[in-house]
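Appendix B. Raw example, untouched.
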Amino acid sequence: MSDAAIRVDGIGKRYRVGQRESYRALRDVLSNAFRSNGRRKPKDFIWAVRDVSFEVKQGEVVGLIGRNGAGKSTLLKLLARITRPTVGRAELHGRIASLLEVGTGFHPELTGRENIFLSGAILGMSKAEIVRKFDEIVAFSEVERFIDTPLKHYSSGMGMRLAFAVAAHLEPEILLVDEVLSVGDASFQKKCLGKMQDVSRAGRTILFVSHQINQIRRLCQRAFWIDAGQIREHGSTATVANLYEANSRDVQASSDTGTNLGRAQFLRWEIEGANGDLANVLVRDREVRLKFIAKVAQPLRNIHHGVALYDQARRVLWGNGIDGVNLEPGIHELVCAIPSLPLQPGVYHWRVSLYDNGERIDDWDCSPPMFVSTEPRTHRQDEFAGILNVPSEFTIRCLPTEHVVMP
């Protein structure tokens, strides 16, 4: 017998663009006739998911990553039987709990207590099983005070906490989780990730969608990169996450040039020796030469040039600068050489500046950001890995008993 908990074979979902609900009033029919001048517009279809096939083994935790609109949520809805596939099929073996939107499956008129029992019954659990888990669910959700209040009076965060607590504690064999943890605060997100790790260690199967790549790294053994409704890459989480970040082009806009054009302006940046389109991707931990290209319109004398490196939380990781810089009109490369940048894989931001006695000439948050896709050399869990990606060696030595000082 196969050990696959989820098996997907050529599944696809096609939607008709602009399709209306089946009910239409007379005014809708008349307005459509006038808009189209009696001619019907040709049908326009879009594939949200197309020709996707994969297997997830029992007890695996698999992440789905990709841009907004890539098809991740649609794929989970197909697996949860919320929507029917246009083509293909999906087999899921075991009891399924899905957390695809805040409060999915909850009834707003029922209290939190009643929704817990309703959700458990839908999952096929007996009343005795639900009662046994009830106190643990309520404590985890942190809504004890409102457990007998109708759900329609809950905030979105309260509803999400209760929904997650129910889905995680009622022991489904398969847990489908969409981008719902973004609703909660940081402490509850951490608690949810810890609970999902507990669920996975108990042999449950989890399919997890998140735009927080560090959450995917922390929780998942494998990952699928979904792009335009298809699987673009799959494999170990470290490999797929690095490829996704390195190829992401969802970047911030370039600098505000309103005060720059008079004297000087940064145009672009790149890692010297990098490959063409990937000139902003750091793939090796060795000497790094960064080139910041600037256009100078007027002679600049005795100015200051600064460089700083930030992480995604906008914390300064490193910064330096030089004074007494002289630049003539023309195009210049300002090169910063660093012996090594042993950073964890991820997204980082450079900022460069030119100042004249404290007056801003140009101050640019470099676009695109820098993607570090080096091989991880630290703890496999992000929360214990830190910022630096430094190799290390461990040895164990047994000391003679005479060297051991007893307390």
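End of appendix B.
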